[in-house]
Model the fold of this input.
Amino acid sequence: MISHEEEFLKKVANRKAVVAVVGLGYVGLPLALSFAEVGFQVLGLDVDEDKVKKIGRRQSYIGHISGDRLKNSANLFSASTDFQLASQADAIVICVPTPLTPEREPDLSFVEGTLQALLPHFRAGQLLSLESTTYPGTTEEILRPPIEALGLTIGADFFLVYSPEREDPANPDFQTQTIPKVLGGSTESSTRVGLALYSQVVSKMVPVSSTRAAELTKLLENIYRAVNIGLVNELKVVASKMGLDIHEIINAAATKPFGFTPFYPGPGIGGHCIPIDPFYLTWKARGYGVHTRFIELAGEINAGMPQYVVDKIAAALNERSKPLKGSKILLLGMAYKKNVEDMRESPSLEVLRLLTDAGAKVDYNDPHVPVMPRTRRGDYGLKSVPLTPESLGSYDAAVLLTDHKAFDKPFIQKHANLVVDTRGAFPVSPSVVKA
Done:
């Protein structure tokens, strides 16, 4: 009698396996399209009816994913809010958010809610993969016991893996298919099954010894970035006090062909990973009696950068005999990184809040965010204002927060009364203040 593993591997090899992707955001949508583009039947599941309707219309809601990709995958990719359809899938991939609570502790409510919605529809022979960033132990402690309670034996009747996402939205050099993918299984057979599936769409797989090893790998990647960004943000403050340009210093150091990787400062950190993931490890480490001081210090430095930017704006206006209260400020860039529309955890939102609380009159321009959506920091009811010589000249200061390629720097510098540059994008001049 053929085993569930053999049957799964045969379906994958023949591309007859049905893949369900749960969560159709910045991670789930490109992954679903990648499977469809190589010939798999793909079912997207999401609680957001608007996303499901847009997919039905073959309309992209993520800037760097073209509508043509959706149209070209129309015969193989469909979406639904009905989680009962998961029973039809051979592989189920969970790509839902893992935010923090207000107390900065892991919030696994999206993962747990998704699991509860899927549990009644699990069957023998399926693979479940979790891609959401989380602390070491989540797969074994949160996902595995409820599945086993159904009477399914992990590694024989059912396969369970953790394979963290590594998406970098709008990066032209790396896509889902070309980014090496880490994977750890609950059992050796789970690892084999998971590798077989993902290798159909990813050029290089990186197996590790366990789901916990894969979970910690993902955290290390983002903690590495958070700590190094914290370092250069702190050095930016020191360099500024010394009258030095930190970007000149970093670029000079980057000429060393070994032993140095350049990281660049900014108004803070944003996105769904770097501001959040380090705290997943610090929380878990406390359970082992370990205080991750280095990681937490970097978090404190990065979290303080929006206030540093506001203080720089206030000081620059003060030198021009203008108080911050009542001044007109134009923020350039609300997305957390350049050339995308993603505003998750964007430091620009905190700068906006701090300036508003200080009594400044704040507008913004962002070619990727025409209307500011409601966020957990509130609903400011703002729309992107046009950049014209007249509009730029009407503000006391223009503050570059996100260095979008679409911003015409010489044009902005020519017509703005004052530019506060948090990204090192403008040349030094009397009208430019580095922050």
About this structure: Residues 305-434 form a domain with the Rossmann fold fold (CATH 3.40.50.720). Residues 211-241 form the longest helix (31 residues). The chain has a mean pLDDT of 95.
